[in-house]
Amino acid sequence: MLGAAEALDDDFAMGKAKQKPLRRNKIHSRATKANERVFIDILPFKQTSDIEHKLRNLNWLICVDEFSGLIQSSFHDKKSSFGAALCNHLVDSKAKGKPVTRVRLDNSGENKALETLANGPQFALGIHFEFTARRTPQQNSLAERGFTTILFQAKAIMHAAHLSHYWKYFPRSEVFMYASMMHGLEMVERNGSFKSRYEHHHDVLPNWAKAGNLKSIGEAGVVKSIQPTDAKLNYRGSKYTFIGYSNKQSGDTVRMFCAKQKAVIVTRDVVWLNEMYFPLTDQAEESVSDDRVPVIEDSVSFTDDVDEDNDVEADREQGNSSDQANRLSSVTPAVVTRSGRRVVLPTRYRDNDDNDVATTVAIDDA
């Protein structure tokens, strides 16, 4: 009889199995200084079908400082290749007098390999690793919410830069990096001091924020691109779009993206155009390149090849101006100049069977 009761309890427990709730009133020793506890997680992206070329660095690594809330992002080719780069970052933090004491992350294989590498003889950082329980992302909540925060900020930046139709041509990692940098400028209060997250973590503002000339992703600028071997009459610059700042150069150094060559350059030789690079329109995606669609100038001239036998036709054109306008609008497409003025092309008509009308236009190439 006892065995039957035990079997019933086992069946009941297996049928009602659920995740154990986290204790909300559990006392948690929150960090009181920068880098005392850092939350780490990595998010892989997938190659979408609308992008023909192969994307690189599809693994997004995020590090969140518990004290300041500063989010730092980086992108890597493989999930197993971020260990050395992260350890070098931890070594730099230790050299600056802000060593990382504790690291909170999930118990995946690459994270356990990171613990071996960081505390091994190569780096010997002496960091205490706190692994989360199985299928309990709530214990790594700062990193999990950090992905959502930066992702939605990146979407807002994308729409402000008119990237809805050109998203597949744009380096996505740069948008996430820029969103992380802007999130660091958010003002928060810690220990009675009201400063930016970046100042709470590094004690000073970054060089690009000190310059006082913040830019938005998508702004257009002309970058000096002339070479010593180029002709003197060539253009001295090319049109690029702003995608972010550089942390390792002076404050006026920016990262510019060439949509035609799909290349990123770091430069300070930029003339800002005070406009967005990508237009706010639903036109075709081919206009993303630097090749400009030709427009008819105001000084375009047209000439007609008219014979003596066409004098009668000319009189008929003057007498039937309204019919001529209707025929012209149905035969010849409208041409508009830069100023918006409609250009009416000269025409001549020939009567074949009292109904057939032929329109010919000759353009003076001279």
Provide an overview of this structure:
The chain has 366 residues and is of the alpha+beta class. The chain has 3 domains: 37-205, 2-Layer Sandwich (Nucleotidyltransferase, domain 5); 215-288; 302-363, no CATH class. It is built from 9 helices and 16 strands. The strands form 5 sheets. It has a 5-stranded mixed β-sheet. A 5-stranded antiparallel β-sheet has the order 11-10-9-8-12. Helix 4 (141-160) crosses helix 5 (172-183). The chain is globular and about 85 Å long. Mean pLDDT is 76; it is low at 282-322, 327-332 and 348-366.
Describe the secondary-structure layout.
Layout: H1 2-15, E1 37-44, E2 59-65, E3 71-76, H2 82-95, E4 102-105, H3 109-118, E5 128-131, H4 141-160, H5 172-183, E6 187-190, E7 193-196, H6 197-202, H7 207-210, E8 219-224, E9 237-245, E10 254-258, E11 263-267, E12 270-276, E13 302-303, H8 311-319, H9 321-331, E14 335-336, E15 342-343, E16 362-363
